[in-house]
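[job 0412] stage=complex_fold ligand=flavin-adenine dinucleotide status=START
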Amino acid sequence: MQEAANNPIPNIPSSPLPKVVIIGAGFGGLKLARELNKKPFQVILLDKNNYHQFQPLFYQVATAGLEPSAISFPLRKIFHHSNNVIFRMAEVKGIDQSAKRIQTDVGYLDFDHLVLAMGADTNYFGAKNIETFASPMKTVSEALYIRNKIIHNYEKAINIAQSENRRALMNVVIVGGGPTGVELAGAMAELRNNVLPKDYPELSFKNMKVVLIEAGPSVLAAMSDVAKSSSLEYLQDLGVEVLLDTKVKDYDGKKVYLEDKEPIETETLLWAAGIKPNKIAGLQEEYYARNGRIYVDEYSEIRGAKNIYALGDISLMQDEAYPKGHPQVAQVALQQADNLAKNLIRSTKDKQKKAFHYKDLGSMATVGRKLAVVDLPFIKFQGLFAWLTWLFVHLMAILGVKNKLFIFMDWSWNYLSFDPSLRLLIKPKYVRESERHELIEEK
Ligand SMILES: Cc1cc2nc3c(=O)[nH]c(=O)nc-3n(C[C@H](O)[C@H](O)[C@H](O)COP(=O)(O)OP(=O)(O)OC[C@H]3O[C@@H](n4cnc5c(N)ncnc54)[C@H](O)[C@@H]3O)c2cc1C
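[job 0412] stage=complex_fold status=DONE, emitting structure tokens
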């Protein structure tokens, strides 16, 4: 590793073109690289994974509705026919601003323009026990881990004689009433109502709780009142216990402790309650806001750092309409990337840059079969039509014809059969800290 750090990343062809290095091939970084394809730049796209992940459908991987490969797309394939975009799987460790150089785990790289698009990770707000024992869902591997954990717990529960000793294995508690929490809770309730009783007929599912905990007074806080109330009603109809105005105090892997409420037994605590931007060493501290986002101007350039830009979840661009910054959603990252690409191209033609203005296309969340809420700028609707709209929009947004086809087939099969077929327990070699405790206890 040390040796790699002292050498340049090998096999990057030399080029007279200005070098744009993009860190992160998520929504923002990948969009930017695609927009700069075949343009007068040498573009080097770096990501610690060699695939792009479609985060809005992670919850379907976690609840056995979709294969991980259906929502992940190999990055190299996207640039097969490109002669100016190079992809490297590399984890960026730090920046030397004055030398215009970044350090990665496979070597260093110099840049003319640097774009930070590293997205965000799970925020546990300093709660160490929750970080140790709860399951986050910020990557496709974490979503797959949740699927394995739930199935593993049921395989364990069926071998336990006393029903009270099975409770913690069967209950699922989700923290965070944003779209991810709502979608996870709805999908878990549907598994409980329609699928798990067929797989484990010896177990009684009447006592299996699916609980959604939200610290604020409503679910889907960023959506309209009608979306909030409809989604709450849908969740409750599916049998989800929704606890609003409820704060989680602690979790020991067996029980969730709440402020002013009885603890809940569960070995499955899914944490969808907050995110924090990913950081890399070497960037000056004054660029960061208190919430860890990086201040950028209306052109996405970091305030005070020439030719270094930040896009998407990691960035904080304030304007009149969004004084606290834009929402951390895919559309913002995509639109900022598009604007930055256009400005970089304009700069090669000595044209004026254009400021970014976010166009809010609306938001949506699905709770279950035929149950969704959609807020568009000009209309809000719920129920079956909202669900069909949600399906269509997500299918269109997925990269790759094969992935679209596979997802369409999986969704059709699941809709007709009530029987998602992906309930395989694929055990990773990697053992989490929380499981190590469990294994030691079991011994
Ligand atoms: C479960 C879930 C559901 C969501 N649902 C929705 C939704 O329905 N609609 C919506 O609009 N938004 C949704 N979001 C939010 C949306 O996914 C983000 O706003 C969006 O991905 C931000 O894009 P980005 O380009 O900033 O970062 P990301 O898309 O997160 O990409 C960051 C990339 O950087 C890479 N990376 C990070 N650190 C390094 C490093 N040091 N070196 C190299 N590579 C690195 C990562 O591997 C990743 O590929 C959801 C998010 C989650 C987690």
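The chain has 13 helices and 24 strands.
[job 0412] exit 0
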